[in-house]
UniProtKB/TrEMBL annotation:
The keyword Lipid biosynthesis does not apply. It comes from the Eukaryota. One of its GO terms (cellular component) is mitochondrion. This is Uncharacterized protein. GO terms for biological process: mitochondrial ribosome assembly. It is a multi-pass membrane protein. Belongs to the peroxisomal membrane protein PXMP2/4 family. Pfam families: Mpv17_PMP22. InterPro entries: Mpv17_PMP22. Keywords: Membrane, Transmembrane, Transmembrane helix. It comes from Anopheles stephensi.
Amino acid sequence: MRRVWKLLFGRYLLVTNTVSSGVLMLAGDMAAQEIENRLENKNAASGRNWQRMCNMTLVGLSQGPLHHYLYKWMDALLPGASVRTVFKKIAIDQFAISPIFIITYLYSAGLLEGASVTDCTDELQHKYWTIYTADWLVWPPTQFINFYLLSPKYRVLYINAITMLYNVFLCYIKHNDDLVLQLTGKARAKTDPSSTSS
């Protein structure tokens, strides 16, 4: 068991980070769909969207390598775990990396679901600030623990575990405009299908 663990978090760390990202995104979407079904009083089996679950898994798999290499780059750029260094890493994460992941998440999920680039852009404009505000509530304290206490080889797994919970929110907000309406008071403008291009 110890040998397998060393391989997973040593030689095969990229694979571990990629697969765990996909599996935990899937788990987050399953939980989000369960919440949606209960709110709409649907039967869980009949209301489950398998294509959406597959799409969210692919999105997670695509984000695993990004996390893997971004954390390696950040640790090389800012080695050590002093409080000052940790706050610098949190600033990079919040001001640079977080916006990248929000954009790639909404575009990759949207395109996999058959939306046009214009539709994805409209959705990004409508939901970006709600997601980014939530990011500020969740990730700075999470990342402080990550950068200050954890070994670099466990960073992505830890983030994926927290992300599984956060993905419930992401998947719900991705597929339900009503939450954004409740939070911001702004309805999403509907795009005329005849005017959009992929």
